[in-house]
Specification:
Length: 387
């Protein structure tokens, strides 16, 4: 990028996902001139959506539902778009049969004989009185035989197969403790999230980002890889060959920023196969897991996310987890958190501390899986630190 750019901004932001866009807005409202560099051909990062050839709104990087318990965060989102209440329902197909997820009493009725199902439900009620959810791990460790049988059925036919595909390992390599926070319902309730606020944009996430970035102090340059212009030498940060002392917010991958000098951080990626079909409905819920399918993990049907009436037509995306390093076009989706990857990450964090004007955040900068509300909270916090 031309050197001129260095003079036209008070703050440089790399990445126009939720993290970068929120910090841009906060800066602009404080009177700062903001330059955002985004290497994709659109803003919005992984929340980007668009209307496809069949007239159906789809999410390019996987299904996104905004959910939070924090009223301040939902209020912030409401400043820039209208939202509709939306309670996501999910399910799984096991042995060709649909069941809601988190698994609930309907799951027991579907996969066990009536007598056995009654025995399991009674035992769960006795063991966990007053509770509406319990972790699958607790059920696997239960001293009650029928509860253990139920948990084992779920583990063998869903969790272990799904987790193995998701992370590219064999089911036998999975330590059940990774399922510590995976809940099983102890009633017939449905709904994927428990948060107080669960919403979807009335128009689109794209519309939300247009409004968020619509400020005279914000300039966005698309299709620009900031790492082509950022460099580090002798504890100084350079942009386009000039020393840069203005604040820089970087929301891309932290290892890439420092040209992988401490090694690569591991990610799992996804590949989507998009299908448009001439039928009103393809599956029972917007998001359905297919644990027993050979390669794909889940399918999202966008006419149900939220309900879109487009005649006798539907569109869905089949999700294949893939190794991030092996596919050139792959995006880094899920950080693989291990002791070794955390050690590498901490080395990059120490690197960041050398540059007082550098703020690294967002799901790629912090090398953490953030839900949107967590990314928003962190972005507001970083904006507060800068000013
Ligand atoms: C499949 C999937 C489903 C999800 N579903 C949900 C959900 O239902 N609910 C929920 O709350 N959260 C969900 N999330 C999480 C959500 O996507 C993130 O919280 C959010 O997108 C984080 O925003 P971000 O700005 O930190 O990162 P991103 O959205 O990744 O934005 C980073 C941006 O920086 C750009 N960039 C990177 N490097 C450079 C560079 N060198 N130069 C220029 N630009 C660069 C990228 O192109 C990208 O646009 C989901 C995530 C995935 C992977």
């Amino acid at each position: 990028m031309e050197m001129e750019s260095n003079k036209i901004f008070d703050i440089l932001i790399v990445g126009s996902g939720l993290s970068g866009a929120v910090i841009a807005r906060e800066s602009a409202e404080k009177g700062k001139k903001v330059l955002i560099l985004e290497r994709r051909d659109h803003t919005g990062g992984n929340m980007h959506d668009h209307v496809n050839d069949a007239g159906i709104l789809v999410h390019d990087y996987g299904p996104h539902t905004f959910h939070t318990n924090d009223q301040k965060l939902i209020n912030y989102m409401c400043r820039f778009a209208k939202w509709q209440e939306y309670r996501l329902t999910c399910g799984a197909k096991i042995n060709g049969q649909f069941t809601p997820t988190p698994f609930n009493f309907a799951t027991i009725d579907t996969f066990f004989s009536k007598d056995k199902a009654d025995e399991i439900k009674l035992a769960l009620g006795r063991e966990y009185p007053g509770k509406s959810m319990v972790s699958i791990l607790k059920l696997l460790d239960s001293s009650i035989t029928c509860i253990r049988e139920y948990a084992r059925f779920l583990y063998d036919n869903d969790y272990s197969l799904y987790t193995a595909k998701q992370w590219g390992i064999s089911p036998t390599e999975i330590d059940p403790s990774v399922l510590e926070r995976v809940p099983v319902r102890l009633n017939y309730d449905t709904g994927y999230f428990e948060d107080a606020y669960q919403v979807m944009p009335e128009i689109s996430y794209n519309d939300f980002f247009h409004s968020l970035l619509d400020h005279p102090n914000i300039m966005v340059k698309l299709r620009v890889d900031a790492n082509d212009d950022i460099s580090f030498k002798k504890n100084k940060m350079f942009f386009g060959g000039e020393v840069l002392q203005k604040p820089v917010v970087y929301t891309g991958a932290i290892d890439e920023l420092f040209t992988y000098k401490h090694g690569r951080l591991p990610y799992r990626s996804l590949h989507f196969e998009w299908v448009i079909e001439e039928k009103e409905s393809f599956q029972e819920a917007p998001v359905v897991a297919y644990p027993q399918a050979e390669e794909y993990t889940r399918i999202t049907e966008y006419t149900k996310l939220p309900l879109q009436k487009v005649g006798n037509r539907t569109a869905y995306a089949v999700e294949f987890p893939v190794d991030y390093q092996k596919r050139d076009s792959a995006e880094p989706y899920y950080p693989v958190i291990t002791a070794a990857s955390q050690e590498i990450y901490m080395r990059y964090r120490e690197e960041v501390l050398r540059y007082p004007n550098l703020y690294v955040c967002g799901r790629l900068g912090d090398f953490r899986y953030y839900n949107m509300d967590q990314a928003l909270k962190r972005a507001l916090c970083v904006a507060g630190e800068i000013f």
